[in-house]
Design a protein that fits this description.
- The structure is a single chain.
- The protein has about 425 residues and is an alpha/beta fold.
- Helix content is about 35%, strand content about 15%.
- A seven-stranded mixed sheet has the order 7-8-9-10-11-12-13.
- Helix 5 links the parallel strand 10 and strand 11 (about 235-240).
- Helix 3 (about 160-175) crosses helix 4 (about 195-210), helix 4 packs across helix 11 and helix 9 (about 295-310) packs parallel to helix 10.
- Bound molecules: iron/sulfur cluster.
- Iron/sulfur cluster binds near residues 143, 186 and 255.
């Protein structure tokens, strides 16, 4: 395996998550069409959105204190953005383009970026009020790494009507080639998150036909996921974050009290079986989401092995000590111990024959995706790689058909 970040884009993406980057005064990010650094979405990332060599979209930490002493510095030279490591150029980056709709308002007068923003190339929407762990009295029960309660009402609008979300989805589809929208909620008393999301999902599927994902706590009634599958939802994701039960309790006190780790695992395992059911023209993926850097790498690897063993795909974030959070003063993880974690992520998915890297035009900036980790492994899976390529063609065709069908039927008087 080539361990030089100049030739290994996955390693560069991982290293940038761990070390962050400084931005030299020569850079003119917004004037050059890049995206403004927004406060974090969904609790884990806030940074500069760039595209690394190899087409790896990345959200690079620039605002946190650890990034101020990063060995990486971004310079602008002759209109290009060149990343330097300890003074030596290592890669030319592209700024993730800021779409024109970022500067527009909905017909109700709200800035479109307060309804949803692009994270890489997909649209992230946090449609409801803040996660209730943040508002508990006398003591909050939020996850210690999370910044959602610091963020809402700053860059996000508190209330987002279905009409407003549809308007932004349409703008992003037409102008940014959007293929996927991801809904995210925190915890609400009474397990109401799916009741809140379903009307949004129904309208988006009917009117646009694009891929839709849902990331919420695990509902106590697992049959609700059969209903989501029927509705045409394409992805469900459960963020249990930490696989070590003792650390889970310490880091995620609200999740531990309300659900417990086992309920998360049960929901992942149950939903992973639903691919065989439901509308055949709608792809279906189940994700278990974890954070690398808050528990020993061996424990994260055990989580990866468990998630893939039930037929789900791990989403592995790198811990980022965000300003203002309970863990703001913690150091970010070191790169080297995380390399085996992301190597295992790729190899476990390939060994189990899971459908990675097949979704059309979806680039994710906040995590290192399993297929992006190919260059962290010396193992080759030629037959599987060919199958994935064919699945990618089929998925593109399927989504194209769904979008055309929805567009035709929503255009009818
Ligand atoms: S459940 Fe935890 S990670 Fe999710 S929004 Fe609430 S506090 Fe943040």
């Amino acid at each position: 395996m080539d361990l030089d970040v100049r030739r290994n884009p996955a390693l560069l993406k991982l290293d940038l998550y761990c070390k962050g980057m400084r931005i030299d005064d020569s850079c003119l990010v917004e004037q050059d069409g890049g995206r403004k650094v927004l406060r974090t979405r969904a609790g884990l990332g806030s940074g500069l959105e760039v595209v690394l060599p190899g087409g790896l979209w990345t959200n690079v930490p620039v605002a946190e204190s650890f990034a101020q002493s990063s060995p990486y510095v971004l310079h602008r030279k002759d209109g290009s953005y060149v990343l330097h490591l300890q003074g030596e150029p290592v890669a030319t980056l592209e700024l993730a383009p800021r779409p024109a709709w970022y500067d527009r308002k909905t017909t109700t007068g709200k800035p479109m970026t307060r309804i949803g923003t692009l994270q890489g190339t997909y649209l992230g929407v946090y449609p409801a009020k803040v996660c209730e762990y943040w508002t508990e009295k006398p003591q909050k029960a939020n996850c210690k790494f999370c910044s959602v309660g610091l963020n809402l009402g700053v860059d996000d609008a508190d209330e987002k009507s279905i009409g407003e979300v549809i308007e932004v989805v349409r703008a992003a589809r037409e102008e940014s080639g959007l293929t996927y929208v991801d809904f995210n909620t925190g915890h609400y008393d009474g397990d109401t998150y799916l009741d809140i999301l379903e009307p949004y999902i129904r309208r988006i599927k009917q009117e646009t036909g694009i891929l839709v994902g849902v990331q919420t706590p695990p509902h106590h009634d697992l049959r609700r996921y059969d209903a989501l599958r029927e509705l045409g939802v394409n992805r469900v994701s459960f963020c249990f974050e930490i696989f070590d039960p003792r650390l889970f309790e310490e880091i995620c006190p609200g999740k531990h009290r309300e659900y417990g780790l086992q309920r998360y695992l049960d929901a992942v395992a149950y939903c992973a079986t639903l691919g065989r059911k439901g509308p055949r023209h709608e792809p279906w993926v189940t994700n278990g989401e974890i954070i690398a850097g808050l528990e020993p790498p061996e424990s994260t690897i055990r989580a990866i092995d468990w998630i893939t063993s039930v037929g789900a795909i791990p989403t592995v974030c790198v811990f980022r000590p965000l300003a203002g959070t309970d863990y703001a003063e913690m150091p970010p993880p070191q790169t080297e111990p995380l390399v085996p974690v992301f190597r295992r992520l790729y190899e476990a998915c390939m060994e189990r024959g899971l459908p990675i890297g097949v979704a059309p035009n979806i680039h994710v900036s906040l995590v290192l995706l399993p297929d992006e980790c190919r260059s962290l492994s010396d193992r080759h899976f030629p037959l599987r790689a060919l199958q994935l390529k064919l699945m990618g063609h089929a998925a593109r065709a399927m989504v194209g058909r769904n979008v055309r069908a929805a567009t035709r039927s929503s255009a009818r008087p």
